[in-house]
Design brief:
homodimer, mainly alpha, 5 helices, 83% helix
Protein backbone atom coordinates (compact mmCIF):
# COMPACT_ATOMS: atom_id res chain seq x y z
CA UNK A 1 0.00 0.00 0.00
CA UNK A 2 1.73 3.22 -1.10
CA UNK A 3 1.68 6.10 1.39
CA UNK A 4 -0.51 8.51 -0.56
CA UNK A 5 -2.10 10.27 2.41
CA UNK A 6 -2.12 10.59 6.20
CA UNK A 7 -4.84 7.94 6.22
CA UNK A 8 -2.42 5.45 4.62
CA UNK A 9 0.28 6.50 7.06
CA UNK A 10 -2.09 5.98 10.02
CA UNK A 11 -2.71 2.41 8.83
CA UNK A 12 1.04 1.91 8.33
CA UNK A 13 1.79 3.17 11.87
CA UNK A 14 -0.92 1.03 13.43
CA UNK A 15 0.42 -2.10 11.74
CA UNK A 16 3.86 -1.27 13.13
CA UNK A 17 2.45 -0.76 16.64
CA UNK A 18 0.44 -3.99 16.43
CA UNK A 19 3.57 -5.98 15.58
CA UNK A 20 5.47 -4.17 18.35
CA UNK A 21 2.85 -5.04 20.98
CA UNK A 22 2.77 -8.69 19.92
CA UNK A 23 6.56 -8.87 20.25
CA UNK A 24 6.29 -7.26 23.69
CA UNK A 25 3.85 -9.95 24.90
CA UNK A 26 6.53 -12.54 24.11
CA UNK A 27 9.35 -10.53 25.75
CA UNK A 28 7.67 -9.48 29.01
CA UNK A 29 7.41 -12.98 30.56
CA UNK A 30 11.21 -13.32 30.13
CA UNK A 31 11.78 -9.98 31.88
CA UNK A 32 9.39 -10.97 34.69
CA UNK A 33 11.20 -14.29 35.14
CA UNK A 34 14.60 -12.58 35.24
CA UNK A 35 13.58 -9.90 37.80
CA UNK A 36 14.70 -10.41 41.41
CA UNK A 37 12.66 -7.64 43.09
CA UNK A 38 9.10 -8.95 43.56
CA UNK A 39 7.64 -5.49 42.87
CA UNK A 40 9.51 -5.32 39.56
CA UNK A 41 8.34 -8.81 38.62
CA UNK A 42 4.77 -7.78 39.46
CA UNK A 43 5.14 -4.61 37.36
CA UNK A 44 6.21 -6.66 34.32
CA UNK A 45 3.36 -9.13 34.86
CA UNK A 46 0.85 -6.30 35.21
CA UNK A 47 2.12 -4.69 32.02
CA UNK A 48 1.83 -8.02 30.18
CA UNK A 49 -1.89 -8.12 31.02
CA UNK A 50 -2.25 -4.46 29.98
CA UNK A 51 -0.47 -5.18 26.70
CA UNK A 52 -2.87 -8.03 25.91
CA UNK A 53 -5.74 -5.59 26.51
CA UNK A 54 -4.06 -3.00 24.30
CA UNK A 55 -3.89 -5.51 21.43
CA UNK A 56 -7.64 -6.06 21.76
CA UNK A 57 -8.17 -2.30 21.70
CA UNK A 58 -5.97 -2.04 18.60
CA UNK A 59 -8.22 -4.64 16.93
CA UNK A 60 -11.10 -2.22 17.57
CA UNK A 61 -9.09 0.70 16.16
CA UNK A 62 -8.40 -1.28 12.97
CA UNK A 63 -12.13 -1.95 12.60
CA UNK A 64 -12.88 1.76 13.12
CA UNK A 65 -10.54 2.81 10.32
CA UNK A 66 -11.56 -0.08 8.03
CA UNK A 67 -8.19 -1.83 7.97
CA UNK A 68 -6.51 -5.01 9.19
CA UNK A 69 -3.28 -5.60 11.19
CA UNK A 70 -1.61 -7.48 8.32
CA UNK A 71 1.85 -9.03 8.45
CA UNK A 72 4.10 -6.01 8.90
CA UNK A 73 6.99 -6.69 11.30
CA UNK A 74 8.17 -3.82 13.50
CA UNK A 75 11.94 -3.91 12.92
CA UNK A 76 12.60 -1.34 15.64
CA UNK A 77 10.91 -3.52 18.27
CA UNK A 78 12.90 -6.50 16.99
CA UNK A 79 16.03 -4.47 17.80
CA UNK A 80 14.74 -3.37 21.20
CA UNK A 81 13.80 -6.95 22.10
CA UNK A 82 17.17 -8.23 20.80
CA UNK A 83 18.91 -5.76 23.11
CA UNK A 84 16.89 -7.08 26.07
CA UNK A 85 17.68 -10.67 25.10
CA UNK A 86 21.38 -9.89 24.77
CA UNK A 87 21.21 -8.62 28.35
CA UNK A 88 19.46 -11.78 29.56
CA UNK A 89 21.82 -14.13 27.72
CA UNK A 90 25.13 -12.42 28.32
CA UNK A 91 24.77 -10.66 31.67
CA UNK A 92 22.10 -12.31 33.83
CA UNK A 93 24.18 -15.10 35.35
CA UNK A 94 27.22 -13.12 36.39
CA UNK A 95 25.50 -9.85 37.35
CA UNK A 96 24.67 -8.55 40.83
CA UNK A 97 20.90 -9.24 41.11
CA UNK A 98 19.87 -5.68 42.01
CA UNK A 99 22.13 -4.17 39.35
CA UNK A 100 20.53 -6.55 36.89
CA UNK A 101 17.06 -5.40 38.00
CA UNK A 102 18.15 -1.81 37.24
CA UNK A 103 19.33 -2.96 33.79
CA UNK A 104 15.96 -4.65 33.15
CA UNK A 105 14.19 -1.40 34.05
CA UNK A 106 16.44 0.55 31.67
CA UNK A 107 15.67 -1.89 28.88
CA UNK A 108 11.91 -1.81 29.54
CA UNK A 109 11.87 2.00 29.64
CA UNK A 110 13.41 2.13 26.16
CA UNK A 111 10.53 -0.06 24.97
CA UNK A 112 7.98 2.18 26.73
CA UNK A 113 9.47 5.27 25.09
CA UNK A 114 9.18 3.64 21.67
CA UNK A 115 5.52 3.03 22.35
CA UNK A 116 4.99 6.56 23.69
CA UNK A 117 6.40 7.97 20.43
CA UNK A 118 4.39 5.56 18.28
CA UNK A 119 1.03 6.05 20.01
CA UNK A 120 1.49 9.83 20.13
CA UNK A 121 2.02 9.87 16.37
CA UNK A 122 -0.89 7.51 15.63
CA UNK A 123 -3.25 9.45 17.91
CA UNK A 124 -2.41 12.72 16.12
CA UNK A 125 -2.93 11.12 12.69
CA UNK A 126 -6.28 9.63 13.80
CA UNK A 127 -7.43 13.08 14.96
CA UNK A 128 -6.43 14.66 11.63
CA UNK A 129 -8.23 11.93 9.70
CA UNK A 130 -11.45 12.42 11.68
CA UNK A 131 -11.36 9.08 13.53
CA UNK A 132 -12.35 10.56 16.87
CA UNK A 133 -13.15 7.30 18.67
CA UNK A 134 -9.96 5.68 17.42
CA UNK A 135 -7.98 8.74 18.58
CA UNK A 136 -9.59 8.43 22.02
CA UNK A 137 -8.57 4.77 22.34
CA UNK A 138 -5.01 5.55 21.19
CA UNK A 139 -4.79 8.37 23.76
CA UNK A 140 -5.99 5.98 26.48
CA UNK A 141 -3.29 3.44 25.58
CA UNK A 142 -0.69 6.24 25.38
CA UNK A 143 -1.64 7.31 28.93
CA UNK A 144 -1.24 3.70 30.07
CA UNK A 145 2.25 3.48 28.52
CA UNK A 146 3.26 6.78 30.14
CA UNK A 147 2.05 5.49 33.52
CA UNK A 148 4.02 2.25 33.09
CA UNK A 149 7.12 4.28 32.30
CA UNK A 150 6.61 6.46 35.39
CA UNK A 151 6.01 3.38 37.55
CA UNK A 152 9.33 1.91 36.35
CA UNK A 153 11.13 5.18 37.20
CA UNK A 154 9.58 5.14 40.68
CA UNK A 155 10.58 1.50 41.21
CA UNK A 156 14.18 2.27 40.16
CA UNK A 157 14.33 5.29 42.43
CA UNK A 158 12.56 3.64 45.39
CA UNK A 159 15.51 1.41 46.18
CA UNK A 160 16.83 -0.58 43.23
CA UNK A 161 19.28 2.10 42.00
CA UNK A 162 20.46 2.80 45.55
CA UNK A 163 21.04 -0.89 46.28
CA UNK A 164 22.87 -1.32 42.97
CA UNK A 165 25.06 1.64 43.88
CA UNK A 166 25.88 0.08 47.25
CA UNK A 167 26.64 -3.26 45.59
CA UNK A 168 29.67 -1.56 44.06
CA UNK A 169 30.92 -0.09 47.34
CA UNK A 170 30.91 -3.45 49.06
CA UNK A 171 28.16 -2.33 51.45
CA UNK A 172 26.05 -5.34 50.43
CA UNK A 173 26.99 -8.87 49.42
CA UNK B 1 32.64 -6.70 32.22
CA UNK B 2 30.03 -8.21 34.56
CA UNK B 3 27.37 -5.82 35.90
CA UNK B 4 28.36 -5.88 39.57
CA UNK B 5 27.24 -2.35 40.45
CA UNK B 6 25.49 0.76 39.17
CA UNK B 7 28.92 2.03 38.14
CA UNK B 8 29.31 -0.93 35.75
CA UNK B 9 25.77 -0.38 34.48
CA UNK B 10 26.51 3.31 33.85
CA UNK B 11 29.47 2.30 31.70
CA UNK B 12 27.33 -0.32 29.93
CA UNK B 13 24.62 2.27 29.21
CA UNK B 14 27.10 4.85 27.94
CA UNK B 15 28.65 2.33 25.54
CA UNK B 16 25.16 1.60 24.21
CA UNK B 17 24.41 5.32 23.76
CA UNK B 18 27.77 5.92 22.08
CA UNK B 19 27.06 3.22 19.51
CA UNK B 20 23.51 4.59 19.05
CA UNK B 21 24.76 8.12 18.37
CA UNK B 22 27.34 6.89 15.87
CA UNK B 23 24.65 4.96 14.01
CA UNK B 24 22.48 8.10 14.02
CA UNK B 25 25.24 10.17 12.37
CA UNK B 26 25.16 7.70 9.47
CA UNK B 27 21.34 7.65 9.24
CA UNK B 28 20.56 11.37 9.47
CA UNK B 29 22.10 12.37 6.11
CA UNK B 30 19.79 9.81 4.43
CA UNK B 31 16.74 11.30 6.17
CA UNK B 32 17.83 14.83 5.22
CA UNK B 33 18.26 13.78 1.58
CA UNK B 34 14.83 12.12 1.51
CA UNK B 35 12.96 15.07 3.06
CA UNK B 36 10.96 17.29 0.70
CA UNK B 37 10.11 20.14 3.10
CA UNK B 38 13.19 22.42 3.34
CA UNK B 39 12.52 23.10 7.05
CA UNK B 40 12.49 19.37 7.76
CA UNK B 41 15.69 18.86 5.79
CA UNK B 42 17.27 21.72 7.77
CA UNK B 43 16.08 20.15 11.05
CA UNK B 44 17.75 16.84 10.19
CA UNK B 45 20.96 18.63 9.14
CA UNK B 46 20.96 20.67 12.35
CA UNK B 47 20.49 17.53 14.43
CA UNK B 48 23.36 15.83 12.60
CA UNK B 49 25.70 18.62 13.73
CA UNK B 50 24.27 18.42 17.27
CA UNK B 51 24.81 14.64 17.30
CA UNK B 52 28.46 15.04 16.31
CA UNK B 53 28.84 17.47 19.22
CA UNK B 54 27.10 15.00 21.54
CA UNK B 55 29.60 12.28 20.61
CA UNK B 56 32.44 14.63 21.59
CA UNK B 57 30.68 15.33 24.88
CA UNK B 58 30.28 11.58 25.45
CA UNK B 59 34.04 11.21 24.96
CA UNK B 60 34.43 13.67 27.84
CA UNK B 61 31.94 11.70 29.96
CA UNK B 62 33.91 8.48 29.37
CA UNK B 63 37.07 10.24 30.54
CA UNK B 64 35.26 11.52 33.65
CA UNK B 65 34.17 8.03 34.68
CA UNK B 66 37.48 6.43 33.70
CA UNK B 67 36.15 4.24 30.89
CA UNK B 68 36.28 3.91 27.09
CA UNK B 69 33.51 3.62 24.47
CA UNK B 70 34.60 0.10 23.42
CA UNK B 71 32.98 -1.94 20.68
CA UNK B 72 29.47 -2.53 22.00
CA UNK B 73 26.81 -2.31 19.27
CA UNK B 74 23.43 -0.86 20.19
CA UNK B 75 21.06 -3.50 18.78
CA UNK B 76 17.99 -1.37 19.48
CA UNK B 77 19.33 1.50 17.35
CA UNK B 78 20.16 -1.04 14.63
CA UNK B 79 16.47 -1.94 14.61
CA UNK B 80 15.33 1.69 14.68
CA UNK B 81 17.66 2.54 11.79
CA UNK B 82 16.57 -0.59 9.87
CA UNK B 83 12.95 0.57 10.23
CA UNK B 84 13.90 3.97 8.78
CA UNK B 85 15.80 2.33 5.92
CA UNK B 86 12.87 0.04 5.16
CA UNK B 87 10.76 3.19 4.79
CA UNK B 88 13.32 4.81 2.46
CA UNK B 89 13.77 1.69 0.33
CA UNK B 90 10.19 0.48 0.09
CA UNK B 91 8.05 3.61 0.30
CA UNK B 92 9.99 6.71 -0.81
CA UNK B 93 9.47 6.42 -4.57
CA UNK B 94 5.76 5.75 -4.66
CA UNK B 95 4.70 7.89 -1.68
CA UNK B 96 3.09 11.33 -1.70
CA UNK B 97 6.04 13.64 -0.80
CA UNK B 98 4.35 15.38 2.14
CA UNK B 99 3.00 12.10 3.52
CA UNK B 100 6.53 10.74 3.26
CA UNK B 101 7.84 13.75 5.18
CA UNK B 102 5.34 12.94 7.94
CA UNK B 103 6.59 9.34 7.93
CA UNK B 104 10.21 10.54 8.23
CA UNK B 105 9.23 12.65 11.24
CA UNK B 106 7.49 9.66 12.86
CA UNK B 107 10.61 7.54 12.34
CA UNK B 108 12.95 10.24 13.70
CA UNK B 109 10.75 10.80 16.77
CA UNK B 110 11.03 7.10 17.66
CA UNK B 111 14.82 7.54 17.58
CA UNK B 112 14.61 10.67 19.75
CA UNK B 113 12.48 8.84 22.30
CA UNK B 114 15.04 6.05 22.49
CA UNK B 115 17.67 8.63 23.25
CA UNK B 116 15.49 10.42 25.79
CA UNK B 117 15.03 7.13 27.68
CA UNK B 118 18.73 6.26 27.42
CA UNK B 119 20.11 9.65 28.51
CA UNK B 120 17.56 9.91 31.34
CA UNK B 121 18.75 6.57 32.70
CA UNK B 122 22.46 7.35 32.30
CA UNK B 123 22.05 10.78 33.93
CA UNK B 124 20.34 9.22 36.95
CA UNK B 125 23.05 6.54 37.29
CA UNK B 126 25.80 9.19 37.01
CA UNK B 127 24.14 11.20 39.82
CA UNK B 128 23.94 8.11 42.04
CA UNK B 129 27.56 7.24 41.37
CA UNK B 130 28.72 10.75 42.30
CA UNK B 131 29.82 11.83 38.80
CA UNK B 132 28.26 15.29 39.05
CA UNK B 133 29.97 16.82 36.00
CA UNK B 134 29.14 13.79 33.85
CA UNK B 135 25.51 13.96 35.04
CA UNK B 136 25.40 17.63 34.06
CA UNK B 137 26.64 16.88 30.53
CA UNK B 138 24.18 14.00 30.15
CA UNK B 139 21.33 16.28 31.31
CA UNK B 140 22.40 18.90 28.76
CA UNK B 141 22.32 16.34 25.92
CA UNK B 142 18.98 15.02 27.21
CA UNK B 143 17.56 18.56 27.01
CA UNK B 144 18.85 18.84 23.44
CA UNK B 145 17.16 15.56 22.44
CA UNK B 146 13.89 16.69 24.04
CA UNK B 147 14.06 19.97 22.11
CA UNK B 148 14.72 18.12 18.85
CA UNK B 149 11.70 15.94 19.52
CA UNK B 150 9.52 19.00 20.24
CA UNK B 151 10.80 20.74 17.09
CA UNK B 152 9.79 17.70 15.02
CA UNK B 153 6.30 17.73 16.57
CA UNK B 154 5.97 21.44 15.75
CA UNK B 155 7.12 20.87 12.17
CA UNK B 156 4.59 18.06 11.72
CA UNK B 157 1.80 20.17 13.18
CA UNK B 158 2.76 23.40 11.37
CA UNK B 159 1.63 22.09 8.00
CA UNK B 160 3.06 18.69 7.05
CA UNK B 161 0.31 16.61 8.70
CA UNK B 162 -2.41 18.90 7.32
CA UNK B 163 -0.99 18.73 3.79
CA UNK B 164 -0.67 14.95 4.03
CA UNK B 165 -4.29 14.77 5.16
CA UNK B 166 -5.40 16.85 2.15
CA UNK B 167 -3.32 14.71 -0.19
CA UNK B 168 -5.80 11.93 0.52
CA UNK B 169 -8.89 14.02 -0.11
CA UNK B 170 -7.68 15.09 -3.57
CA UNK B 171 -7.45 18.71 -2.42
CA UNK B 172 -3.83 18.80 -3.55
CA UNK B 173 -2.01 17.11 -6.42
Amino acid sequence: MPLKSLNDLLEHELKDIYSAERQITRALPKLAKAATDPKLRAAFEKHLEETKGQIEQLDQVFEMIGAKPGRKVCLAMQGLVAEGEELLEKEAEKADPTTFDAALIASAQRVEHYEIAAYGTARTYAEHCGFKDAARILQRILDQESKTNEALTKLAESGINQQAEQAGSGASA
